[in-house]
Specification:
The chain has 546 residues and is an alpha+beta fold. It folds into three domains: 85 residues, Ubiquitin-like (UB roll) (Roll), CATH 3.10.20; 157 residues, 2-Layer Sandwich (Alpha-Beta Plaits), CATH 3.30.70.20; 231 residues, 3-Layer(aba) Sandwich (Rossmann fold). The protein contains 14 helices and 26 strands. The strands form seven sheets. It has a seven-stranded mixed beta sheet with strand order 16-15-23-22-21-17-18, sandwiched between helices. Strands 1, 2, 3, 4, 5 and 6 form a six-stranded mixed beta sheet that branches. The protein has a three-stranded antiparallel beta sheet with strand order 7-8-11, with no helix packed on it.
């Protein structure tokens, strides 16, 4: 195996691996500071922050010969016998000079900059900068310019790393950003008439190592050191991108991509990035209600539309009673549910009616998949767990049962009760479709917002959003990812898993892990879920072949 020596430490690399000095040093636990380099973008070696000493060890004699000048670590590949020195006096002096040059013309507005607390310019200054400032301090605030509907540019904060420019050309393929002028007058800007409005635009804010690019949605909302971060999975489409949900006091403030080479590499789309606001929408269903005609009319004089509040403790027994007395049950298992929740829902339904008709719930779709030049794909299927729910249904003998089949069961009178789980952030059912359920003896609807179907329901139950649940989702490529709850649901809302857990008579608090292990024993596809999954998840098909 090829060997690379990093600050006297020998590490092995793969014979076919193509690494630069930054990547090789990381294998040894050494971080070489850098601004312009990013593993998902082309190499330009413009910032010069990663200058290091390199050399080569002779395989026979063991003698080391060093290159007389410093070289950029991002642009220098390693091979067997490469020697990397990252902490010599020459390297330290170089880093200090680079930092000093960047800070001479940088605005002194850290107290009002959104990047403060996670800014590489700040961090590197304290780690590698000069011990004291040798130039006059000239405080000024950066010029602000809108470059697109979601991104603001603070011009004078820019250090010209050009990550954002390369992203729009190489990954998004839209090329709206450019470098205008030359020399000391260089600035990032958009081409006239072409604002930064592509579907991946928010990624340039994540890429920016300083505070030059700001997210308008997050701007001045929260200091980053107040935020808590939970590894999560985006529920916006069937891609299942790995994300971080950043929150404070049970309020989500932003979503950021989490690196996952098997799913979304380093990026997320803007639809997913800004698709969390429904979690805090005032129109959400926040309490259980049961319609009771004997309770008298509502304020509009309509008896059938009145909802009587019900305590959660009474829901567990009340649902069983009403659904059991109604007759044959049809259940729509939403693709927004986790694998664990879907399995428990099917078990609850079959415990109420052994002949219950189980079907995949409505699958929202927004057209064809859209793939960008960098390889990132936005899926047209707008649900995160269709594959997982289908596998669970197959175990319960309901393979191939879908939403249209359930509608046919109800329309033909073969079902007299229905339990519809939804949880979709967007409107998903129209009145003509909802009216097909009017003849049922009992209709249970579990959703985030009121819909035409919820207006007809006997029981209306609140649902939870992606950040309020825990469990496992399986994306369109059969990649399973487990995640934990990031924030608590609003007061008065039980997560679906907690309700199903109690209806099954389980003791204690809802534990997705124990359910996942039970599912792994029951569903061949999910055998890999018996073990603790890595942060990036597992490909279930590859595990089956293994």
């Amino acid at each position: 195996m090829p060997v690379v020596i990093v600050d006297g430490q020998e590490i092995e690399i793969g014979a076919d691996e193509r690494l630069n000095c930054i990547e090789a040093a990381r294998r040894a636990g050494v971080e070489i500071p850098h601004y312009c380099w990013h593993p998902g973008l082309s190499v330009v070696a413009s910032c010069r922050m990663c200058l290091i000493e390199t050399g080569q060890r002779d395989a026979e004699s063991g003698k080391i010969s060093m290159v007389p000048k410093l070289v950029p670590g991002c642009q220098t590949p390693v091979r067997d016998g490469t020697v990397i020195v990252t902490e010599s006096e020459k390297v330290k002096e170089s880093r200090a000079r680079v930092e000093e040059a960047l800070l001479i013309d940088h605005p002194i507005d850290c107290p009002i900059c959104d990047k403060a607390g996670e800014c590489l310019l700040q961090d590197y200054h304290f780690q590698h900068g000069q011990p004291e400032r040798r130039a006059d301090i000239q405080p000024f605030h950066s010029r602000k310019r809108d470059v697109g509907p979601t991104v603001a540019l603070f011009v004078d904060r820019c250090i010209m790393c050009t990550r954002c420019v390369r992203f729009t050309r190489e990954v998004a393929g839209t090329g709206e950003l450019m470098v205008s002028s030359r020399g000391a007058k260089e600035e990032i800007d958009v081409f006239p008439g072409y604002p930064l409005a592509n579907k991946l635009a928010g990624n340039v804010v994540d890429l920016c190592p300083v505070g030059a690019l700001g997210d308008k949605d997050f701007l001045y909302q929260q200091r980053v050191w107040f935020l808590k971060r939970e590894a999560n999975v985006c529920g916006g489409c069937s891609a299942g991108c790995s994300i971080y949900t950043e929150h404070n006091q049970d309020t989500v403030y932003r979503l950021k991509p989490r690196e996952n080479p098997q799913v979304n590499t380093w990026w997320i789309c803007d639809e997913g990035r800004y698709g969390w606001h429904h979690l805090h929408d005032e129109a959400r269903i926040l309490a259980v209600g049961r319609r009771d005609a004997e309770a008298g009319p509502d304020r509009n004089g309509d008896t059938a539309r009145r909802l009587i509040p019900v305590e959660w403790a009474d829901v567990v027994t009340g649902l069983r009673r009403d659904l059991g007395a109604a007759g044959r049950l049809a259940v729509a298992v939403s693709p927004m549910l986790t694998v664990e929740e879907a399995w428990m829902l099917c078990a609850v339904a079959r415990s109420i009616d052994p002949e219950a008709y189980l079907a995949l719930g409505h699958v929202p779709n927004a057209g064809a998949d859209e793939t960008f030049p960098g390889g990132f794909t936005i899926r047209g299927e707008k649900c995160p767990n269709r594959k997982g729910v289908e596998e669970v249904l197959a175990v319960f003998g309901a393979a191939g049962h879908d939403w249209h089949g359930l509608l046919a069961e109800v329309a033909d009178g073969r079902a007299s009760a229905a339990w519809i789980t939804a949880g979709y952030p967007q409107p998903w059912i129209d009145e003509p479709t909802a009216e097909r359920f009017t003849g049922l003896s009992c209709l249970v609807v579990q959703d985030l917002f009121e819909t035409p179907l919820a207006k007809l329901a006997t029981w209306v139950l609140p649902a939870t959003g992606f950040a309020e649940r825990a469990g496992t989702w399986v994306n369109v490529a059969h990649h399973a990812q487990s995640f934990r709850q990031a924030i608590r649901p609003p007061a008065g809302v039980w997560p679906e898993g907690r309700l199903f857990w109690n209806m099954l008579g389980r003791r204690g608090l809802y534990d997705p892990g124990s359910v996942r292990r039970q599912v792994a024993e029951s569903v061949p596809m999910f055998a890999a879920l018996a073990d603790e999954l890595p942060a990036t998840g597992v490909d279930l098909r590859l595990r089956q072949l293994a």
